[in-house]
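User: Teach me something about this protein's shape.
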Amino acid sequence: MNSSTPPTVAALAERLDNADGARPALVAAERPERVPLSSAQRRLWFLNRLDGPNSTYNIPFALRLHGTLDETALRGALQDLTRRHEPLRTLFPSVAGEPYQHILPAEQVTVALETFEATEEELAGRLAEAARHEYDLTTETPLRAALYRLAPDEHVLFVLLHHIAGDGWSLAPLTRDLAAAYAARRDGGEPDWPALPVSYADYTLWQRDLLGDQDDPSGLYGKQLAYWAENLAGIPEHLELPTDHARPAVSDHRGETVPFHIAPRAPPAPDRAGP
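Assistant: First, the predicted structure itself:
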């Protein structure tokens, strides 16, 4: 792109494709005996081992279901979901301190769907309690589900996903696949999905090949570490910002929300009469 070319996503993509050292294509790869963790997974695994099982990185979401519910079909749909998406049936053990992805065969994983009776008044508290589940990533698959029956034709499906297996963007495809699987199961069949071209394990191997080993100074990973180590050398451990409360000895990760509204456009300036 030159100075006369307007910046567009298409022009940027073309420049990246033609750049020296363009990224290799992400394709399905042959799996080693132990699949490593991605950079994002390593961070979350380390925190889970450092702090112990906790609920800090849980992603809860709830779906209100109206009308007659086929619980057998719903249970089958949850199984279909784990069969399709490997991260939902992955454990994260370690050997000699080095973690790896242990992807369980689909037939070995059962998503337990407990059903509870609840009232509307109880629901918020029950969901909050369920969201506080403390995952042990070394022994526990990162997906849980519970069903709350408010009335014979009114239910709330609660699903708890650990961040090591998904993020906010994951919720749309997961709920879409769950709905498709439930519809198929309710009609007596199975979801007719096209095979996924790649999985998260393929991405992990692609990332490892792209970045190289962190101990290799000639690789992209090593160069990035050296750059930031040099530029961040000597910075203070804490920023002494003015606060209205003392910094706690241990972070508890609690937070609040502050709602506010931004108008679509600024109001017109008042007319000012001349002298």
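Now, about its shape. Residues 75 and 113 are 7 Å apart (CA to CA). The first strand starts at residue 58 and ends at 66. If you'd like, I can walk through any region in more detail.
User: That's plenty for now, thanks!
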